[in-house]
């Protein structure tokens, strides 16, 4: 501060000390400026070198490739293919509420603006293994364009099908299922929802690991695809195993006159499949008041669909089951039961209605078949079933 004052005082010349300090203060900014100019020069040099690399060493191709990728991604997200392609894998992290919401999307225009082969979704509800899989493999062979497969097992089960099997990687995310409980219907809805994610699936058949097909694929496909109705049993049974299971706490959503019973094993078209997975009105009532002795899987879907869409139901099942032996479970057929006469009785000795016309072809599937019946089924499948 003294030096500044001395230099500014009138009539006095600056002292030597003041001149030396001033010169040092001027030299320092000049040196800093030099460093800055050198740094800028180096940066400019690197920039020029990079420009030559881009021009002569092919880096432009990378930029061009990136632009193409961006353009491709943009087009992909807006293409029709992005909407109609089925999921690349069945495994996902959606919970049931998310899955049902996503699966409930329904196109409002019924004419599809693309080529579409309507398919049957074969949905297997099983504890684990599929012991009759070799018979199903033979049934499906050569018809890949017209079917899809979905398998719901216990969560801990891991299938070991070969990569050439039609069942390879066909498991959907699953949860524990208890017999007679609402978790059984949850599993069936889960299968339907996963199958609905594929826009090509038009019909949905519920099967168990003990089911077999009674006809060759072409007959089953034409029978189902040409039907004006879906095949779900829904009948009014006045006894203790029908109306006797009704609880009046289900009012007002369900009254006893609307209460229906039917087989668990059904075939539904896409409209009914969506109705089943989007239901929020009847589900809480059945979950709360159709207790284990009620066997909710025999009543929930038949009752709900009879109320909502009775005109779409054939009121019968396509799956043959023998209850003649009594008990809580149907008869199981082993190798000694499997004969040509046995299947003729199932396939020809019944009458029913198909598209409002009488027919003797009433069952396309049958259960329950024991694993030890597989060998004889395979040996005689051409004679028994035509495949």
UniProtKB/TrEMBL annotation:
Pfam family membership, one: Branch
GO MF terms held by the record: glycosyltransferase activity
Coiled coil among keywords: no
Compartmental location: Membrane
Bilayer topology: Single-pass type II membrane protein
Lyase in keyword set: no
TM region positions: 32-52
Keywords on record: Glycoprotein, Glycosyltransferase, Membrane, Transferase, Transmembrane, Transmembrane helix
A single cellular component GO annotation: membrane
InterPro entries cross-referenced by the UniProt entry: BC10-like, Glyco_trans_14
Protein name: Glycosyl transferase, family 14
């Amino acid at each position: 501060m003294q030096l500044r004052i001395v230099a500014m005082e009138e009539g006095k010349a600056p002292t030597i000390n003041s001149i030396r300090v001033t010169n040092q203060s001027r030299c320092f900014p000049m040196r800093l400026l030099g460093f800055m100019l050198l740094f800028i020069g180096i940066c400019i040099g690197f920039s020029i070198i990079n420009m030559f690399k881009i021009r002569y060493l092919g880096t432009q191709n990378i930029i061009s490739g990136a632009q193409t990728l961006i353009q491709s991604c943009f087009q992909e997200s807006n293409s029709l293919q992005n909407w109609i392609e089925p999921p690349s894998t069945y495994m996902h992290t959606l919970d049931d509420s998310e899955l049902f919401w996503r699966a409930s999307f329904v196109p409002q225009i019924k004419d599809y603006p693309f080529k579409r082969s309507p398919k049957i979704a074969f949905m297997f509800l099983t504890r684990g293994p599929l012991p009759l899989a070799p018979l199903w493999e033979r049934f499906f062979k050569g018809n890949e364009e017209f079917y899809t497969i979905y398998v719901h097992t216990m969560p801990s089960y891991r299938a070991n099908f070969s990569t050439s099997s039609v069942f390879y990687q066909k498991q959907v995310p699953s949860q524990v299922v208890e017999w007679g409980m609402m978790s059984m219907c949850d599993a069936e809805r889960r299968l339907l929802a996963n199958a609905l994610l594929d826009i090509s699936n038009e019909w949905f058949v519920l099967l168990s690991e003990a089911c077999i097909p009674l006809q060759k694929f072409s007959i089953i496909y034409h029978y189902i695809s040409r039907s004006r109705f879906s095949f779900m049993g829904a009948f009014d049974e006045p006894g203790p195993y029908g109306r006797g299971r009704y609880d009046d706490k289900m009012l007002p959503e369900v009254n006893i006159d609307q209460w229906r019973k039917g087989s668990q094993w059904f075939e539904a078209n896409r409209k009914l499949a969506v109705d089943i997975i989007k239901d929020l009105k009847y589900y809480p009532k059945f979950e709360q008041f159709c207790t284990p002795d009620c066997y909710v899987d025999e009543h929930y879907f038949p009752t709900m669909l009879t109320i909502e869409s009775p005109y779409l139901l054939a009121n019968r099942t396509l799956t043959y089951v023998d209850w003649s032996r009594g008990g809580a479970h149907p008869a199981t057929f082993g190798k000694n039961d499997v004969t040509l006469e046995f299947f003729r009785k199932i396939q020809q000795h019944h009458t029913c209605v198909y598209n409002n016309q009488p027919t003797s072809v009433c069952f396309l599937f049958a259960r329950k078949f024991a694993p030890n019946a597989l060998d004889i089924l395979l040996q005689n499948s051409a004679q028994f079933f035509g495949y």
